[in-house]
């Protein structure tokens, strides 16, 4: 009998079974489709109808983003339990079907309510998809190749987030904005074929967790005010992060002249092709972020490999705060890109150490449980960030024409996050792991 975990004697890439590469392919297309859409969604929704958009208000878009993104972060904990009980293939069938349908209906919809409902469908499908991939990788790898397997997994995420907005989105946008959603529908819907004909169910756990135990776990975590306070403080950084998909894109569209960047890139491309006409646009903000992670994550991780968790988290958040503050200094294009790059370096510095920090402060007998609920930073950060960002943008940028104030306020959120973590570590965190 073929045991997908019987790989200890095989080196490197050859140690992974077919199911591993199947889910890596699924992850690449799903994340590429998702980030391809998210790289332009907030601009498309507020763009005027004559310009090809839907003409929604920024505040109403903030409500959409503060609904669908928290769903993406919350649903995986329920989806994981359901997948263990009913099977990964069945869960993937549902996830890809619902996700693809959501993207397709978004491409057809023009009313606010229909767009909102379509994007909720997309978020439900994506939320159920997320834990199946990491769960499959965990079940088809072992101690000898797990680190490499999850490294490939994270690279596939960022590779999709890099390639789709860089190559596909600009071309599709030139035809019609709705084709971006059609692309995402095809990109995720086609994965049904992989699921039906190629994917193989990984070994199921001997005992599956009843859904009631999931809710018991939520209750146990919610009772721990110290853990929730730490998550709430850390979510301040993610309030800033989620601006990269909303207010930063609006700011780029409204204020930044990217001609110097376009000239520099086209001068370089001119070495290889004649008369290049590349243009930096909103989708390239996502390209910068994912490109930085692809190029620098291994370097950054090696630098901070042995540094303490909390100081490294604070250093990363400080870099992110500086990156956000840089946006307030000037509307010059290279200053804008510099701010995005520095913020991205801050993200890749802070977040891996956050996972480590959760492990340090969790009760010794509940570390896995607490790690499972650490995702709440995304629920809180996106839930607040969408509405807050849109409200502040309308007031300070659209009405008062003071974008610098907007970025200064978000920088203050970063400073408050750093101060909050320092105070938490000194006064709230007990000297020994929490046990009650």
Structure commentary:
The chain is mainly α. It has two domains: 18-204, MFS general substrate transporter like domains (Growth Hormone, Chain: A), CATH 1.20.1250.20; 210-429, Growth Hormone, Chain: A, CATH 1.20.1250.20. The chain is 76% helix and 0% strand. Helix 3 packs parallel to helix 5 (112-140), helix 4 (88-108) packs antiparallel against helix 5 (112-140) and helix 17 packs antiparallel against helix 18. The longest helix is centred in the middle third of the chain and has 30 residues, at 146-175. The model is unreliable at 1-9 and 432-436 (pLDDT under 50).
List keywords for this structure.
globular; mainly alpha; Growth Hormone, Chain: A; 2 domains; single chain
CATH architecture of the largest domain: Up-down Bundle
CATH homologous group name of the largest domain: MFS general substrate transporter like domains
- The general outline is globular
Average residue pLDDT: 91
Please give the CATH class of the largest domain: Mainly Alpha
Number of strands: 0
Provide the structure class.
mainly alpha
Give the biggest sheet. Answer: none
Q: Quickly count the domains.
A: 2
Poorly predicted regions: 1-9, 432-436
Q: Into which percentage range does the β-strand content fall? A: under 5%
Tell me the distance between the termini: 45 Å
**Rg (C-alpha, Å):** 22 Å
Helix content: over 70%
Listing every helix as H and every strand as E from the N terminus to the C terminus, the arrangement reads HHHHHHHHHHHHHHHHHH
CATH fold call of the largest domain: Growth Hormone, Chain: A
| Count of individual helical segments | 18
């Amino acid at each position: 009998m073929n045991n997908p975990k019987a790989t200890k004697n095989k080196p490197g890439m050859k140690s992974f079974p077919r199911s591993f590469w199947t889910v890596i392919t699924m992850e690449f297309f799903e994340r590429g489709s998702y980030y391809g859409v998210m790289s332009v969604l907030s601009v498309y929704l507020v763009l005027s109808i004559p310009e090809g958009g839907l003409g929604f208000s920024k505040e109403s878009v903030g409500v959409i983003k503060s609904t669908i993104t928290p769903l993406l972060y919350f649903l995986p904990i329920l989806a994981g339990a359901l997948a263990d009980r009913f099977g990964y293939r069945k869960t993937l069938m549902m996830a890809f079907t619902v996700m693809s349908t959501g993207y397709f209906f978004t491409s057809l919809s023009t009313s606010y309510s229909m767009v909102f409902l379509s994007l909720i469908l997309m978020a439900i499908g994506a939320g159920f998809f997320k834990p199946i991939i990491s769960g499959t990788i965990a079940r088809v790898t072992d101690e000898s190749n797990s680190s490499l397997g999850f490294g490939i997994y994270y690279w596939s995420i960022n590779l999709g987030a890099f390639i789709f907005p860089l190559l596909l989105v600009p071309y599709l946008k030139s035809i019609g904005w709705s084709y971006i959603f059609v692309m995402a529908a095809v990109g995720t819907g086609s994965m049904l074929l992989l699921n039906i004909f190629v994917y193989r169910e990984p070994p199921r756990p001997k005992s599956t967790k009843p859904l009631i135990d999931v809710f018991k776990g939520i209750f146990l975590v919610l009772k721990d005010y110290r853990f929730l306070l730490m998550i709430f403080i850390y979510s301040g950084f993610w309030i800033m992060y989620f601006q990269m998909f909303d207010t930063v894109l609006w700011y780029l569209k409204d204020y930044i002249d990217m001609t110097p960047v376009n000239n520099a890139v086209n001068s370089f491309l001119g070495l290889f092709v004649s008369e290049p006409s590349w243009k930096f646009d909103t989708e390239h903000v996502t390209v910068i972020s994912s490109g930085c992670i692809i190029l620098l994550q291994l370097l950054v991780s090696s630098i901070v490999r042995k540094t303490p968790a909390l100081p490294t988290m604070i250093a990363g958040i400080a870099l992110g705060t500086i990156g956000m503050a840089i946006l307030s200094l000037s509307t010059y294009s290279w200053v804008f890109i510099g701010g995005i790059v520095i913020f991205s370096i801050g993200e890749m510095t802070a977040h891996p150490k956050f996972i480590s920090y959760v492990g340090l402060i969790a009760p010794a007998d509940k570390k896995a449980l607490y790690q499972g609920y650490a995702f709440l930073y995304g629920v809180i950060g996106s839930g607040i960030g969408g509405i807050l960002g849109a409200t502040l943008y309308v007031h300070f940028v659209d009405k008062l024409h003071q974008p610098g104030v907007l970025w200064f306020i978000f920088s203050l959120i970063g400073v408050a996050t750093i101060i909050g973590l320092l105070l938490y570590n000194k006064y709230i965190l007990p000297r020994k792991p929490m046990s009650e």
